[in-house]
Design a protein that fits this description.
Helix content: 10-25%
Radius of gyration: 22 Å
Shape: globular
Structural class: alpha+beta
Number of helices: 6
Number of domains: 1
Strand content: 15-25%
């Protein structure tokens, strides 16, 4: 395994977007690319006299999310994403710490899922490829491990986003079951039941996902991807967005890009089961934030054909340089 030199990234930069195009939503985070060489490995640094084992890079998206307890008002009611009212209660320290722990666990679901496989083009990429002093006719092109680092306790001034978290008063849910999903959360509004993965309301069955981790889904939005239907541009999701624009969306199409069909409803578990749909599965499509970030850091590599994969492709490849 490589030794990660986390204190000295090869390159780091803030990243932000303000668009809903291309299956994305507005996002803000920091990007750090860390050299992953072991002692004795190839180095970018001038004057190096070491050369042996080389390793992949690690591209880390660093997101600072300030979780804020919603204090009950005089009438302790909070509206969810659908403007439905819910009674709330004050947080206590034990329940809050338990919630933060489950949020961290769901954020970690994004780790060890993707790698970016470097393009096979023999053309030297000067802003990315590693030159090795001892091998003047060779260069190393690392593959990239994708990582997500979510800080749930930043200072207010450094937070990329502030998330309000409502503590639902489950004793006042009436006839509704005290289960995740009764309150519809969104990326900047969570509730106390979101830490427990839940079955989406489409019901159990071979063509429906079994569990949906809400916080992992919302963190997905916070780093950029929209719902799976917008990422894949599925026909039903495209119809929902078009109907929403002219005010004729209803039923499973209601809400445009937030409609059930854009979650993958009615299109089989291969789509609806995605983390950005109604399930918990990760596919190469969920690696988009790392591809966007890499191309943002190294814009000249945009046309070279980076590819997201779900298995470790190895550390990288050697190039033979020509005069």
């Amino acid at each position: 395994m490589p030794t990660w030199y986390n204190s000295a990234p090869a390159k780091s930069t803030p990243y932000s977007s303000s668009t809903y195009t291309g299956g994305s939503v507005p996002a803000s985070y920091d990007v750090c690319l860390h050299p992953g060489f072991s002692p004795g490995g190839a180095s970018r640094y001038p004057g190096s006299t070491v050369q042996s084992t080389v390793a992949e890079y690690k591209l880390t998206l660093k997101v600072r999310l300030k979780l804020r307890q919603m204090a009950p008002t005089l009438i302790p009611i909070t509206l969810d994403a659908d403007d439905k009212p819910f009674w709330t209660s004050p947080w206590n320290n034990s329940s809050w710490q338990q919630f933060v722990g489950t949020a961290a666990a769901q954020a970690d679901m994004w780790n060890n899922k993707f790698w970016l496989q470097a393009p096979s083009t023999p053309t030297f990429i000067p802003e990315y490829d590693i030159l090795v002093k001892e091998l003047p006719n060779r260069a190393f092109r690392p593959n990239i491990r994708c990582a997500l680092d979510v800080n749930l306790n930043p200072t207010d001034s450094t937070a990329h986003r502030t998330i309000n978290v409502a503590n639902l008063d489950v004793s006042k849910l009436g006839g509704q079951a005290a289960s995740p999903g009764v309150f519809r959360s969104h990326s900047l509004l969570w509730d106390s039941l979101d830490g427990v993965p839940w079955a989406f309301p489409w019901g159990a069955g071979a063509q429906n996902p079994t569990v949906h981790p809400v916080i992992a889904h919302e963190i997905g939005h916070l780093i950029g991807p929209g719902h799976i239907g917008t990422i894949l541009k599925t026909p039903l999701c495209e119809v929902a967005q078009n109907l929403h624009q002219i005010g004729y969306d209803s039923g499973d199409f209601e809400g445009g890009r937030n409609s059930h069909v854009c979650y993958g409803g009615g299109q089989g578990v291969a789509i609806s089961g995605n983390i950005m749909g109604a399930g918990d599965a990760f596919t190469v499509h969920n690696a988009l934030p790392w591809i966007w970030s890499l191309l943002y850091m190294f814009p000249k590599t945009m046309g070279y054909g980076w590819r997201a994969v779900l298995r470790d492709p190895g550390p990288g490849s050697w190039l033979t340089l020509t005069a």
